[in-house]
């Protein structure tokens, strides 16, 4: 969101509609629209009786000790809030993790963030992070969906053991999953849409939450319907046959 002025009104309407329906969380980042997405989020939550849980992210090139603090303060100003609930390093870049984590602690002590985490970290990155900061428990946001199940081999088991939630982005593989005949066939059997079945599968994985992009009212309403989908063992087995889990280590994918 935030990348086209022509779509701004529609995106804002979708966010407000999602909040009306009870969506509890909004994920954004300073990278999205170079800050414009955060401005739209701020406009959407302004005046809301109960503010949703806000997740945002710092660019790797801003993730130095002082740069992280400055980036967070810009994000807070754009959204018109005093605290970000979960602040993530968007991906591992040139800044030293020690500096980024030191800045996260400083921001948390100042009350500007409630918790911190990372994004696009593979198992080795998570192990590095754990050696540097035992307090890293917020989340690791990665690409994870039926068609991209690589994290299940070693990353997700590690995160479960350490009680760090996996936040799955692009749970519909940017729409590619919706073209898969096997998914449509099974969705018809269940009585839901392919998107709802794919989202229900992600949410059924222990220790996993997901953040499907929704920039229209129709998609916001459809995605919410995934909460009503019941996955039987038979349907789960069929999904495993159509979209097999990994048999070995796969490099973490990014979009």
Query: What summary fits the major beta sheet?
Result: 7 strands, parallel
Quick check: average pLDDT?
96
- CATH level-3 fold name of the largest domain: TIM Barrel
Number of domain modules: 2
Oligomer: single chain
Distance between the termini: 15 Å
- What spatial order of strands do you see in the largest sheet? 1-2-3-4-5-6-7
Short description:
The chain has 255 residues and is an alpha/beta fold. The protein has helices at residues 8-21, 36-45, 65-79, 97-109, 123-132, 155-161, 181-190, 194-203, 217-224, 233-242, and strands at residues 25-27, 53-58, 84-89, 113-119, 140-143, 166-169, 208-211.
Task: Throw out a few tags for this protein.
TIM Barrel, about 260 residues, 10 helices, about 15% strand, alpha/beta
Characterize the structure shown.
The chain is of the alpha/beta class. The protein has two domains: 1-119, NADP-dependent oxidoreductase domain (TIM Barrel, Alpha-Beta Barrel); 123-255, NADP-dependent oxidoreductase domain (TIM Barrel, Alpha-Beta Barrel), CATH 3.20.20. It has helices at 8-21, 36-45, 65-79, 97-109, 123-132, 155-161, 181-190, 194-203, 217-224, 233-242, and strands at residues 25-27, 53-58, 84-89, 113-119, 140-143, 166-169, 208-211. The protein has a seven-stranded parallel sheet. α5 (123-132) links the parallel β4 and β5 (140-143). α7 runs antiparallel to α10. The two termini are 15 Å apart. The model has no long low-confidence stretch (mean pLDDT 96).
